Amino acid sequence: MQLEFPIYSGGQVSSRVREALNRKQQAQDEMLGTLRSVIRETSKVFRNTITAMNRIKALSVAVESTEAALKSIRAGYKAGTRTNADLLRAQRELYKARLDYAASKYEYAANYFQLKNITGNLSKDDVQIINAWFDK
């Protein structure tokens, strides 16, 4: 009976071990990079969602304020103390405030869906919630 085994095969085994260790390190680096990217993107979308919520609150107050201003300018116009230009300016400001309010609601909805998608929690119910919100 004869037993043969190579004691040293020209560095082939150690080369394969080094290659496997390098591939493992590369995979770990890629995973860490992906993890950091997901965390960064999630944080960004979360901050944008909070900002959009605060902007909606502020613009809601702005719409109410411009509506009250338009009402008082109309009363002044009927009394003869305001001009037609004042009335048109107030109406323009009201429409601009309403447009900004609607745009901020859209921005919030987009960020909300993106945040839910990133976290893996997006469902049909979310779409129904946003639809009901826009119907108000």
Account of the 3D structure:
With 136 residues, this protein is an all-alpha fold. It has a domain at 45-135. It contains 3 helices and no strands. It has helices at 12-79, 84-119, 124-135. Helix 1 (12-79) runs antiparallel to helix 2 (84-119). The chain starts with 11 loop residues before the first helix and ends with a helix. The relative contact order is 0.09. The mean pLDDT is 90.
Structural class: mainly alpha
Helix residue percentage: over 70%
Q: How many β-strand stretches?
A: 0
Q: What's the helix-strand series?
A: HHH
| Rg calculated over all Cα atoms | 31 Å
Task: Tell me, briefly, the overall form.
Answer: rod-shaped
Largest sheet: none
Termini separation comes to: 90 Å
Strand content: under 5%
Low-confidence spans: none
Output mean pLDDT. 90
Summed up, the helix count is 3
Oligomer: single chain
Jot down its keywords.
mainly alpha, 0% strand
Quick overview:
By secondary structure, the protein is mainly α. Helices cover 85% and strands 0% of the residues.
